[in-house]
Amino acid sequence: MTRIARPCLALALLAALAACSDQPPAQTPPPAAEAPPPQRPETPRPDQAALRRERAETAREAAARAEVAANSPASRTMRDHLAGVEQALIARGRLRTDDGSDIAMTPEKLAEDFVEVALYDEYLRQGGKLISRPTPAPLRRWQQPVAIRLEFGDSVAPVQRTRDRADIADFAARLQRVSGHPVGLTGAAGNFNVLILNEDERRAIGPRLASLVPGIPEGDIAALRDLAPQNYCTVFAYSSGNSPVYSQAVALIRAELPPRLRRSCVHEELAQGMGLANDSPRARPSVFNDDEEFAYLTRHDELLLKILYDPRLRPGMTEAEARPIVLQIARELLGTEV
Fold first, then answer.
1. Which CATH class, in words, describes the domain spanning 90-333?
2. Contacts of residue 261, Cβ cutoff 8 Å, sequence gap at least 6
3. In which band, very low, low, confident or very high, does the pLDDT at 37 lie, cut at 50, 70 and 90?
4. Segment (H or E) for 116
5. What is the Cα 262 distance to its own chain's centre?
6. How many angstroms separate the CA atoms of 15 and 246, rounded?
């Protein structure tokens, strides 16, 4: 039997080149229906009112803890003492809040003040103890960004913490602007720890200091733990080995301080921790002078910071190496370059 071939018909859009056959083409099954995507449960929106209530309750609990901690006999006695000190200093015309611009400066005087403040240490280490004695030191400063981390004792109420944090953040920004070196407040791990503690908290700070600053000398722990009443605050800055470059610092500020002395401590200790390590009775107008004439960083002190972080100076320089360069920079800053 002879088969008669019949042409294949192309069925566009139905099959791609279906083979020719005597049999009728197979029916293409209808496409399977797609299952709808699984429904995701809606994320519940946070209850803002509940969050506010929770925050308010947390703040109330912190304030209650602070009231108890701040009213220990030792802390009350120190708070009353420091309030009296501030009042007496202000009555004597001390703790000035201006920037000292009314006091004339010469490049020679500014350079001499820099040498005394930046190229001397306030204390001498002797037999593991700190002896108050100005001692020549190389130029030291930070190379890495300074990340300031705050730590409060329970005695510091939430409202006061907010004020302290704002003051320190503002001052950190000022230090950066003046020095040209990165300085800022951080909520994470920092390399410049600022502890604000009352009498009881400070006396128990030894283990915490050893954790914050591994290898901190026992003499420094003792100095911070047993801070003399006439010292309102202090700072220690550290290098690795014999390096003149700072890598860590820790400052302690008394929680009992009244407002002006408290802010004065922030200015002095953070600026000293930048590398202006010494106090001098000849530095004026300056916070780096134990006569308490000025409460806050002055124009003179800002110029000292500018000199310290000028790239023409290098960490490790001695007084003999740095002095002529410092005088040159001072002349430029005061506009008397000839």
1. alpha beta
2. 82, 85, 86, 89, 95, 232, 295
3. low
4. helix 107-118
5. 16
6. 78
3-state DSSP call for residue 322?
A: helix
54-99 residue pLDDT tens: 778 777 788 888 888 899 999 999 999 999 999 999 999 999 999 9
Structure token digits, residue 130 = 């700190």
- Collapse the DSSP code of 261 into the 3-class scheme (helix H, G, I; strand E, B; otherwise coil) and give the result: helix
Compute the distance between CA of residue 213 and CA of residue 53 in angstroms, rounded to an integer.
Answer: 38
**123-133 residue pLDDT tens:** 777 676 777 77
DSSP of 181-219, one letter per residue? S-EEEESS--SEEEEEE-HHHHHT-HHHHHHHSTT--HH
CB 223 within 8 A of CB 210: no
Q: Where are the domains of the chain?
A: 90-333
Q: Can you tell me the distance from the alpha carbon of 72 to that of 188, in angstroms, rounded to the nearest whole number? A: 31
Q: Which two three-digit tokens encode residue 9? A: 């018909």
Nearest to 97 by CA among 257, 301, 279, 260: 260
Strands 146-152 and 183-186: parallel
Tokens of 316: 């490790």
Pair 95, 267: CB distance under 8 Å: no
Length of the chain: 338
pLDDT value of residue 32:
55
pLDDT on residue 137: 95
pLDDT of residue 203: 97
**Region class of 128: left (phi > 0), else alpha (psi between -120 and 50), else beta:** left
Max alpha carbon distance in the chain (Å)?
Answer: 133
Using pLDDT thresholds of 50, 70 and 90, give the confidence band for residue 19. Answer: very low
Would the pLDDT of 8 be above 70?
Answer: no
